[in-house]
Amino acid sequence: MNELLNVLTEALGKNLPLWIVLSSFSVGLVIFFVQESSHRLRTTLNLLAAVVKLALVGVLLWGVYHGQVYEVRWVIAPNLELLLHADALSMLFVTLSALLWLVTTVYAIGYLEHSPHRSRFFGFFSLCVSATVGLALAGNLVTFVMFYEFLTLATYPLVAHKGSDEARKAARLYLAYTFTGGLLLLVAVVWLKSIAGPLTFVQGGILDTLPAETHSALRWIFLLMIVGLGVKAALVPLHGWLPKAMVAPAPVSALLHAVAVVKAGAFGIVRVVYDVYGVEFADVLGVLVPLGIVAAFTIVYGSTLALFQDELKKRLAYSTVSQVSYIVLGTAILGPLATVGGIVHLVHQGLMKITLFFAAGNYAETLGIHRVSQMNGVGKRMPLTTLAFTLGALGMIGIPPMAGFISKWYLGLGALEAGVLLWVMPVLIASSLLNAAYFLPILYRAWFLPADSWPDEHIQAQRWETHGMLLWPPVITASLALLAGLFASLPFSPLEWAQLITAREYK
Amino acid sequence: MVGLSAINPQFLYVCAGIFLFAIGLWGTWLHAHYVRKIISLNVMGAGVFLTLIAVAYRGEHLPPDPVPHALVLTGIVVAVSATALALVIIRRLEDATDE
Amino acid sequence: MNEAASVVWVISLPLLGALLATVWRQYAATIGWVSSALTAGCAVWLLWVVQRAGVQELALGGWEIGLGISLYADGLAAVMVLMSSLVVLGCSVYARHYFRAQRQHELFWPLWLLLATALNALFLAGDLFNVYVTLELLGISASALTALGAKRAALRAALRYLVVGLLGSMLYLMAITLLYAAYGTLNAVQIAEALQVDPLGWAALLLMLAGLALKMALFPLHFWLPPAHSNAPAPVSAALSALVVKAAFYLVVRLWFEVFAPLTTPLLANALGALGAMAVLWGSWSALRAERLKLLAAYSSVAQLGYLVMFFPLLAVLEGEARQWLFGAMVLFALSHAFAKSALFLAAGILLQYAGHDRIRELSGTTQALPLTTFVIALAGIALVGLPPSGAFLGKWYLLDAAFKTGQWWWVLVLVAGSLLATAYVFRLLGHAFGHLPAVKRPVVAATQEIPALALALLATFGLGLGAMSLWSWLAHTGTGAGL
Amino acid sequence: MLQPVLLELPFLLLLAPLLPLCFALVGNDRIGQWLLPVAALPALVAAFVLPVGTSVALPWVLLGAQWGLDATGQVFLLVTALLWLLAGLYSVSGTPAGASWWRFRVFFLLTLSGNVLLVIAQDMGSFFLGFALMGLAAYGLIAQQASVTTRRAGRIYLIWTVLGEVLLFAGAVFTAGAIGSVYFSEVVGKELPLAAVILVTLGLGIKVALPGLHVWLPIAHGAAPPAVSALLSGVMVKAGILGLLRFLPAGAASTVWVAEWLVWLGLVGAFYGVVFGLRQTAPKVILAYSTMSQLGVLTLLTGLGLQAPADAALAMALLLYVAHHAWVKGALFLGVGLFKQTLSWWLLGVLVVLALVLIGVPLTSGALAKGSVKAALPAAWQHLALGLWLSSLATTLLMGRFVWSLWRYRRQHGGAASHHTSTSPGLTQWLGWAILVEWVLWWPFLFALPVFKWWDVSPILLGLGMVALALLPRIPAGDVPVLVAHTGYRGWHWVRQWRHKHRRFLSN
C-alpha cells in the first residue's frame, strides 16, 4: 500500500494540488457538452470525477502527512503569482469538500432525475467544487481572491437554476451581495499588497513586522476584508442573500451551506486572521474583539430568526447564518482552544448542515413537504431520513455525541482561556437554547404527531422510504457527523487535525 | 503701407487658414443637416490645406517645401473620397424606406 | 526572409486580399479568411522578430526618414498588430457563415480587409502624417462597413460615424500642420526629440487630443458610438468596438508618452482621468439601462475606454518598475477588452440571427436554446466586469495597486462603482438565460460562428488572465519615449 | 474459559451502556419487548461482579473518555440497573395505552443507555453524553400519549431539561477549563471558580428539583406512564445527585460555599414538596411531590457531604438513602399503575406498606436510611436533626394524603372498575412489581438496622395520628358511642344485603 502511494505521489509530483482542482474543473467543462438525454454518461462522469478527486485528495493527505511539500506556482503578471499549496488547514477543507462533493453528487443525481438542464447543472456543480477546492488550496491571498470570485460565478447559475422568478431574483440578490463583497475584498487585498508585498499564507501571520504607522491602514483593510468575506460567511448584516438563496435545489443548498459558499467565507476569515494577520498581531491591532462581537450577534440573531420560519429550508438557512459564525467566533477569540473550536466547526457544521439539507430535500422530493407545519408524523413514513435529520439537529444544538458538541466545548474552553467567557458563554447558551427551540419542535412533529396526508407524494415507499440515491447521502453524512463527535479524539479526526493546525498557528 | 507690407504674407495665409478651420468646425458642430455638415467639413479641410501651403513657404528665394504640398495633395484625395462616401450614404438614406 | 519584411507583410497581405476580393468576388470569403489567417501568422512572426531583434524601423521605397513613408514596429505596436489580426481573423471566420446568402456579402470583404490594412498600418505608422492617412482610411472603411447594415438607422449611424471621424481627423491634421510648422518634420521620434514647451506645442497637443478623444469616444464625445456600433453587422460591430476605438487610443498613448511627454503634466493627466472616470460611470449606467443587447455592448465600450484613460493620471506619477507594470496592465486591459468585446458582439450576432431581435427582456428562450453562445457571453461578461481570470482583472488589479501606491484613492471608488455597474449589466443579461420562457427549438448554429466567438472569449479570460506574463517582456522592447 | 476474560476485561462495563443502545437500534417488534429487561442485565451484573476500581480508558471517544466503577458508582449502578430491569420487566406487558410500542421501546432503551452511561462515566464528556441522552430520550417516554396534557407535560419537561443541560454544559466547560482536564479524578482536591460551581449546581439542580427549579417534576410525573414515573423518580433524578458528587471538588472553598446553600435549599425543598404535595389529589402527583421532598433530603445530604470529603459515614448515609428512595419510590409508582388497573384492595394494602417503608417505620429501609443519616450528621450540623424530624413528620402526612388519594381514586372509579381500564395487568407487570416489593422489604436486613428509638418513631406516630384524624369520616355528635352504634348498624345492613344478594343468586 505504501509503495503504491509512493509511486502515485511520485507520478503526480508536486502538481498534485493542480490536478485536484482540475479534476473537477475539466469534467465540469466536459459535462456542459453532454447531451441532456445521456443520463448514464453524465452520471458516470460525475461520479468518476468525484471519486478521482477524493482519491487524489487521499494521496495528497498521505503526502502532506509524510512531510512532502506540494506547491504549484504560476506567475500571471509581474509581482503577481498564483500559488497552490497544501498545508494542514487547506487539507482540512479540501478533504471536507472532496468528501461531501462525492456524497452530494450522488444525492444530486437522485434529486434531479428527470428535471431539465441537467448538463448545465452538473457542469456548474463541478465548477463550483473546483472553485472551492481551489480556494482551499490557495497559497496566497491573490489566488484566494481569484478562486473566491470564481466561486461566485460558478454558484450563480446553480442558485438561478430553477429559472422561476423567485429563483432568478434570489440569484440576483446573491450576486449583488457576493460581488460587492468580492470587490471589497479585492480592494482590500490590493491595498494590503501595496503595503506588505506578496501575501503568501504563513502560519502565524506575515504582518507583525510592519511599522506602526501602517497599523491604522491595516485596521481599515481588515474591516474591508471582513466585510468582503463576511458576505459569503453571512455575518449579520451581510446575510440577506442566504435565506433567499434557499430557493435553489436541495443539493445546491446543501453544497452552498455546508461546503462551498458560506464555508468559503468562513474559511477566508480563518485564513486572513491566522495566516495573514496572525491572530496575535490581530489582537494587538484590536480587531478581534469587534469581529467576535459581530459573530456573537450573528449567532444569536440567526437563531432567533430561525425560530419564526415555517419554511423548513428557510429555517435551516437562518440556522446556517448562526452556525457559521461559530467558526468566526472561534477565530476571533485569542487562544489555541478557541482556534481549535472554530476550525473544527468548519468541518462539523458542514457535516451536520449538509445532512439537514439533504433530509429537507428528501421530504420535499418524496412527499412534497416544504414547511415545518407539514411534517407531522413524517418520522414514521421516512424513518432513516428523519433519523439523519434528528442527528443533525441534535448536533446543531450541541448535544453529545454529535460533532457540534465538540465544537462548542472547545469554543467554551477557548473563551475561558481568553478570559472572555463572560460574554461568550451567554452567547453559546442562548444559541443552544434557541437551536433547541427551533429544532426540537420539528423533531416532535416528525416523531410524535400522527401523520396527516402528504402534500404531494412523488416517490412511493418501496423497499426503502425513498429513492436510494436520496436516502443514503443523508444517512452517510449523519453517520459521519456522529463519528466525528463520538470519536473526536481519534487520530486523523477533524478535532485532532484542528489541534495540529492550531499548534502551528501559535508560534 | 509700410505697416501692411511688414505683415508676413505667410502669417496672413496661416491666419486665414485657421479662420476657415474655425468656421468649418463651428459649422460642423452646429448644423443638423448632414449635407451642411459635409460642406462645413470641407471648409475645415480647406482651412487646414491653406495653412499647410502657407507653412510650405520658405521665403522668396527658396523653393517651397515639397512635403506640405504632398500632404495637401494626399489630404485632398482623402477629403474627396470621404465626401463622396458621405454623399452616397446620404443618398441611400434618402432612398431607404424601412421604419 | 528579411526580418523587417514581417512589418510590410502584415500591412500588405490584407491589402492584397482586399484587392483580390474586389476582383474575384465569388471567392471573396475565402480570400478574406485566408488572408486574415496569413496576416495573423505574420503578426506572430512580427512579434517574434521584435522580441528577438528589437525595434524594427523601415523606410518604404527607400525614401529617407522624414520624406517617405516610415514604418516603425516596437513591442507595443507588434502587440497591437497581433491583437487586431487575431480579432480580424476571428471575425473573418465568423463572417463567412454570417453573410452567407446576404447581398452585402461581396461588399463586405474588400472593405473588411481594407479595415484590417488600415489598422495594422496605423499601429505601425512611424510618422504623424502617415497616421493621418491611416486614420482616414480606417474611418472611411469603418463607416462604409457600418452602412452595410442597410437599414435607415444603420445608414444614419454610418453617416454620423463618418462625419465624426472626419472631424476628428481634421483636428488631428491641424495639429500636424502646427507641429510641422514648428519643427519641420513629421517623424514621431524627431518631433519628440525637438519638442518645446510652448503655446504651439500645447495647441498641437490639445487639438490632437480632442480629435482622438472624439474618435475613441471619450466621454463626453461618445455620443456617436452607441448607434454606430449597435447597428452594424455583427463582425463589423465587433471590429469597431474592439479595434477601431482602440486604434485612436493607441495613438493617444503614443503621442502622450512619446511625442508630447514634456507637456503631459499630472494636472492634464488628471483631467483626462476624470473624463475617463465619468465615462466609466456614465457608460456603465447607460449599459445597465440599455434595452438591447448590442446597445448594451456599445455602451460598455464607452465605459471600458474610460478605464483605459484612467491609467494616465497614475502613470503620470509612478516611476520605475511599478510604472512599467502599470503600463503593461493598461495594454493588457486594452487587449482583454478587444477580445472580450469582439466575442460579445459575435455572440450577440448569433442571438440576433436566431431570435430576430436583441431585446434583452425577451432573450430568455433563445439563450437557453443556444448554451454555447450564452457561455461566450458569460465569458465575455467576466472580462468586461474584470473578474478573474481575465486580462481586465489584472488590469484593474494594477490600477487599484497604483491608486493605493500613489495615494489617489478616488480612482478606487470609481473602479468599485464601475465594476458593480458592470456586474449588474452583465448579469441582467445572463439572468435571462435561466428564465422560464418557452425554449425555442434548439437551432443548429454553425460551428464557424460559435467557435471563433468562443476562442476570442477564452483568449480574453483564461488566455490573458493566466498567460499574459510574457506581455510585459514584449513591451520591454517598446519605443524611444519617456521611460517606456 | 471465556468467563475470566469477560470479567477481566471491562467488557461488562462497555456492554452495560452499549447493549441497550444496540437494542434500541436493532430490535424488531416480535421479541422487542423482552429486550427491555434484558438490556439492563449487563449493568446489573457489572454492579455485582466488577470490583470497585475497574475502569476502562477510551481515549479516542469524545474528549477522551474513561468509564469505570468507584464505590459511589457501584451503588448507583446497582440501584439504577435493578430498577431499570424490573421496570423493564413491568413494561414488557404493561404498554401504556394509546402509545406507539415501537417508539416506547426505542426511547426506553436510549434512556436506559444514557442513565447507565452517566453512572459509569468518569469523565465529563461521557457524563454529559449520558446525561443528555437520558434527559432527551426520557421525553419520548413522558410524551407517549398524544393528549394535550402529556404534550404539555412533555414540553415543559423538555424545556427544563434542555435548560439544565445547557447550564451543565457551561459549568462543565468552566470546570474543565479551570482544572485543565475532563476527568473527574482530576477534580478531586482542586479549587474551582465560584461561577463554575454555581453553573454546575444550577444545571444539575433542575434534575434534583431544587425549589424554584422543580416545576417540571410534578407535571412530568403526573403525565408519564407508571413505569416511566418510577424510573424518573427512582433513578433519573438521582443523576443530579451523582453529578454534584462528580463535578464538585468536595472541600474546596467554592464548593463549600455552594454546599451550604445546598443544605438549606434541600431543607426548604423537603418541606416545599410536602406543602404543595398536600394540596394535590392525583396519587402520582403526590408521589412526585414526595420525590421532590425526598430529593430535598438528598440534596441536603449531598451538601453536607461536599463540605466534608472524608466523612465515610455521611457518604454511606447518602448512598443508603439513594437506594432506599429509588427502590421504594419505584415500587410505589409501579404499584399505583397496577392499582389503577385493578383497583383491588389488597394492592392498596401493599401500597400502604410501601408508604410506611418510605416514611421509615422500623425494620424497613426507610428506618435504615434515616437512622444512618441521623448517625452521620456532622457535629456542626446537629441542629438539622430537628429538621429531619420535622421532615419525617411531613413525609408521613404526605403519605397519608397519598393513601387517601388512592382511596378517593377507587371511590371515583370504583363502580366502573372494569370499564375504566381496557386491559388487566399482564404477568410481567405483576412479576416485576412483586420482585421489587420483595426486594424493598428485604434488602435492609442485609445491613445492621438501627436500634429502635422512640424519638425516631415519634414523628411517624404523630403523623399517623394526624392522618388518622384527617382521614376519619365525619364524626357525629356524641362521638364514640354513636360511632360504634353507627358502625354496628352499617355492618348489620351490609350483612343483610349480602344475604339478600346471595339468596337471589340461589333462587336463580
From TrEMBL, chain A:
This is Multicomponent Na+:H+ antiporter subunit D. It comes from Thiothrix caldifontis. Keywords: Cell membrane, Membrane, Transmembrane, Transmembrane helix. Residues 79-122 form the NADH-Ubiquinone oxidoreductase (complex I) chain 5 N-terminal domain. Belongs to the CPA3 antiporters (TC 2.A.63) subunit D family. It is found in: Cell membrane; Membrane. InterPro entries: CPA3_Na-H_Antiporter_D (IPR050586), ND/Mrp_TM (IPR001750), Proton_antipo_N (IPR001516). It comes from the Bacteria. It is a multi-pass membrane protein. One of its GO terms (cellular component) is plasma membrane. Pfam families: Proton_antipo_M (PF00361), Proton_antipo_N (PF00662). Residues 138-431 form the NADH:quinone oxidoreductase/Mrp antiporter transmembrane domain. The chain crosses the membrane at residues 16-34, 46-65, 88-109, 121-138, 173-192, 220-242, 254-274, 286-308, 324-348, 384-403, 423-448, 469-490.
Automatic annotation (TrEMBL), chain B:
One of its GO terms (cellular component) is membrane. It is a multi-pass membrane protein. It is found in: Membrane. The chain crosses the membrane at residues 6-26, 38-57, 69-90. It comes from the Bacteria. Its main location: membrane. Keywords: Membrane, Transmembrane, Transmembrane helix. It holds the Pfam family Oxidored_q2. InterPro entries: CPA3_antiporter_subunitC (IPR050601), NUOK/Mnh_C1-like (IPR039428). Belongs to the CPA3 antiporters (TC 2.A.63) subunit C family. This is Multisubunit sodium/proton antiporter, MrpC subunit. It comes from Thiothrix caldifontis.
From TrEMBL, chain C:
Pfam families: Proton_antipo_M. It is a multi-pass membrane protein. One of its GO terms (cellular component) is plasma membrane. The chain crosses the membrane at residues 6-24, 31-51, 71-95, 107-125, 131-149, 161-182, 202-224, 236-257, 263-283, 295-318, 324-348, 369-389, 409-430, 451-475. Coiled coil: none annotated. Residues 125-421 form the NADH:quinone oxidoreductase/Mrp antiporter transmembrane domain. GO terms for molecular function: NADH dehydrogenase (ubiquinone) activity. GO terms for biological process: ATP synthesis coupled electron transport. It is found in: Cell membrane; Membrane. Signal peptide: none annotated. Keywords: Cell membrane, Membrane, Transmembrane, Transmembrane helix. It comes from the Bacteria. Belongs to the CPA3 antiporters (TC 2.A.63) subunit D family. This is Multisubunit sodium/proton antiporter, MrpD subunit. It comes from Thiothrix caldifontis. The lineage of its organism: Bacteria, Pseudomonadati, Pseudomonadota, Gammaproteobacteria, Thiotrichales.
From TrEMBL, chain D:
The keyword Transmembrane applies. Its main location: membrane. Pfam families: Proton_antipo_M. One of its GO terms (molecular function) is oxidoreductase activity. Residues 121-340 form the NADH:quinone oxidoreductase/Mrp antiporter transmembrane domain. It is a multi-pass membrane protein. GO terms for cellular component: plasma membrane. InterPro entries: ComplexI-like_HydComp, ND/Mrp_TM. The keyword Lyase applies. Keywords: Cell membrane, Lyase, Membrane, Oxidoreductase, Transmembrane, Transmembrane helix. The chain crosses the membrane at residues 6-26, 38-62, 74-92, 104-121, 127-144, 156-180, 192-216, 228-249, 261-278, 285-306, 312-336, 343-364, 384-407, 427-446. It is found in: Cell membrane; Membrane. This is Formate hydrogenlyase subunit 3/Multisubunit Na+/H+ antiporter, MnhD subunit. The lineage of its organism: Bacteria, Pseudomonadati, Pseudomonadota, Gammaproteobacteria, Thiotrichales.
